[in-house]
Design goal:
Order of helices and strands of chain A: HHHHHHEEHHHHHHH
Largest sheet of chain A: 2 strands, antiparallel
Oligomer: heterodimer
Number of domains of chain B: 1
Helix content of chain A: 55-70%
Largest sheet of chain B: 6 strands, mixed
Distance between the termini of chain B: 27 Å
Number of strands of chain B: 10
Radius of gyration of chain A: 21 Å
Structural class of chain B: alpha/beta
Strand content of chain A: under 5%
Strand order of the largest sheet of chain A: 1-2
Shape of chain B: globular
Largest interface: A-B, 25 and 34 residues
């Protein structure tokens, strides 16, 4: 935490401070040296400020198309950081994450468009609905492991989508449209640049929250439960509460993404929350590096920007993108920027 | 049969020092249809090393699991300082100071020795106390300090056992349940581990030790129980049981 502490003593709890730290492996290649460089506190600060500056300036020097794509990428950053809490931190596979995204989007959509509730007043309800959904999916799956967990979460995702498609209040297959745009202290949020900045703020908040959670006691409980839940329980960690917390917090991240997604587009339909959506979010997390915040952010950008950058290839672009993804996973099986390099 | 019962009753009447820390009463436990424990009762007094001996499948590990809440007792009760803990969740039992060092050590792969130790002190919120315990564990096991930044699962078997015991010490246990600490270790290391157990006990840790190596365990323990087919068949002061080679051999079939 202390930016002025010498790099050889990263851990104040060490009884012997004079021994060299054997923990940090020596960087072996360019990529690793780059990671290590960005992980020193001072440089990380500089990197943060640079990225923030770039994010702020970009919409003024680029086209509206770029702004819209970047907004989408930032939405994915929020969603991916949320899923990363479930998958990366707590080690629970989730193939239905889009369900939480949907719960957030639909709750706000229904409340604002059908009941005329103010957008900001609708947010707490959307968050509560998502937390409830987190408990509903988390509760029954707590005793399940890996494959079974994946199947149940996949089913949950589909149930939410089918419910949205068949209920009247959700607008059926055509979904909800004319969701009113929000305003904040007289600032009417409606242009694509406005929404871009909203998502910059959300992504930054999601980043800070992820960081805090990673360093927290709960973060350590997730780490231990992920590695061996029986051993963790034998040392007094409440396995059930720890896993539920991951689902609920992950659900809230997803819902926040969904809430602002719905007002940004002004219309939502069940197909925005398909299985494919869940897979794409999971793909970004795995591709970037499960559990590693910068990796996950990188993954989110690649998944959104990749197909756009390949647009010149026409119909071949998704094929080329898929091949690129396969190559990345082949050469970096634990993600581009993995949590630990061993 | 009748002989052993009278003998165990006689042994039970001998006075043991200290208050009863942990006590299990007529515990029955099942794995599905199979009854693993048929009314097991035993006491662990404050400051004692109590050993539970028996052959494979006799119910030793199940007894420990029933105490730590990993297996539910269908009948009977588990008491920690007179209070029932039989219906508590495993993590709550751990929070009350009953620490189970399971068979096979359960070292977390991919985490360093130090991170493994820190798991033990997860429920300790006082930073100074945590640091102090870490120092104590490093003092007890210098090798763990030397290897603190290495992956815990890459240690040798003996070192992993030390790590598992160190992790339990970090918790500040009221009772430590040790399941087969000597398993899979070379004879020299077995003696080392036993010496460490003795040292932990002398420093004040109350220990319930499950062992297949009856001779060693009897040399170490104050009091011993022999379990067979899910029932306690014999109990008594370890020193007395040790002298009665024929009984030990008959029930445990051990020769070194």
């Amino acid at each position: 935490m202390d930016k002025h502490s010498p790099p050889t003593n990263p851990d104040a709890r060490e009884p012997d401070l004079h021994e060299p730290d054997l923990h940090e492996p020596r960087p072996r290649n360019l990529l690793q040296r780059l990671y290590v460089a960005f992980e020193s506190p001072g440089r990380r600060r500089a990197l943060h400020l640079t990225i923030l500056a770039i994010l702020i300036v970009t919409p003024w020097i680029s086209s509206q198309y770029t702004t819209v794509i970047l907004t989408n990428a930032l939405l994915y950053v929020v969603l991916c950081l949320g899923l990363n809490i479930v998958v990366g931190y707590a080690g629970l596979l989730d193939l239905g994450y889009a369900a939480f995204f949907a719960v957030g989007a639909y709750t706000v959509g229904i409340l604002t468009q059908q009941f005329g509730v103010n957008f900001w007043a609708a947010i707490p309800f959307a968050l509560m609905a998502a937390a409830l959904a987190g408990v509903i999916i988390g509760g029954p799956t707590l005793r399940l492991r890996s494959d079974y967990l994946a199947i149940v979460t996949l089913g949950f995702g589909e149930i939410v989508r089918f419910t949205a498609r068949n209920l009247e209040i959700t607008g059926g297959a055509s979904g909800l449209s004319h969701i009113p745009e929000p305003s904040l202290f007289g600032w009417h949020i409606d242009s694509s640049i406005d929404f871009y900045y909203v998502f910059v703020v959300l992504a930054v908040l999601a980043y800070l929250a992820s960081q805090r959670l990673f360093d927290s006691r709960l973060g350590r409980a997730w780490l231990y439960v992920r590695h061996d839940e029986d051993a963790a329980e034998a040392m007094g960690i409440n396995r059930v509460a720890t896993k539920l917390a991951a689902y609920v917090i992950g659900a809230i991240f997803g819902a926040i993404g969904g809430i602002f997604f719905s007002v940004n587009l002004g219309a939502i339909s069940p197909e925005s929350f398909s299985f494919q959506q869940s897979v794409l979010i999971l793909l970004a997390v795995v591709l970037g590096g499960m559990g590693k915040i910068p990796g996950v952010i990188l993954g989110a950008f690649i998944v959104v920007l990749g197909p756009e950058l390949l647009r010149d290839f026409g119909t071949l672009r998704l094929l080329i993108f898929a091949v690129l993804l396969l190559l990345i996973m082949l050469f970096r099986p634990s993600g581009i920027w993995p949590e630990k390099r061993s | 049969m009748t002989e052993t019962i009278t003998q165990s009753e006689a042994a039970a009447s001998t006075t043991r020092p200290g208050k009863v820390r942990l006590s299990i009463r007529d515990v029955e436990a099942f794995y599905g249809q199979i009854q693993a424990l048929r009314g097991v009762s035993l006491d662990v007094h404050e400051g004692e090393i109590v050993t539970l001996l028996g052959s494979n499948g006799a119910g030793k590990s199940t007894t420990l699991k029933t105490i730590s809440g990993l297996v539910r007792a269908q009948r009977g009760d588990v008491l920690l300082e007179g209070e029932s803990i039989a219906t508590l969740a495993a993590h709550e039992i751990a929070r009350r100071g009953v620490v189970h060092v399971p068979e096979g050590r359960r070292i977390l792969r991919g985490l360093t020795v130090k991170e493994n130790l820190e798991l033990g002190a997860f429920t300790v919120k006082d930073n100074a106390l945590r640091r102090q315990r870490l120092d104590e564990v490093y003092g007890l096991f210098p090798i763990l300090h030397e290897r603190r930044h290495q992956d815990g699962s890459l240690l040798s078997g003996g070192q992993q056992q030390m790590l598992a015991m160190g992790r339990a010490l970090m918790h500040g246990p009221s009772v430590m349940l040790l399941d087969e600490p000597s398993m899979g270790l070379a004879p020299k290391l077995v003696t080392d581990i036993m010496r460490i157990i003795k040292r932990l006990n002398e420093a004040g840790t109350t220990i319930l030790l499950v062992e297949q190596n009856a001779r060693l365990a009897l040399r170490l323990a104050h009091y011993a129980y022999v379990i067979e087919n899910g029932e306690i068949r014999m109990q008594g002061e370890a020193a007395k049981l040790r002298q009665d080679e024929s009984i030990v051999k008959a029930y445990l079939g051990v020769g070194e």
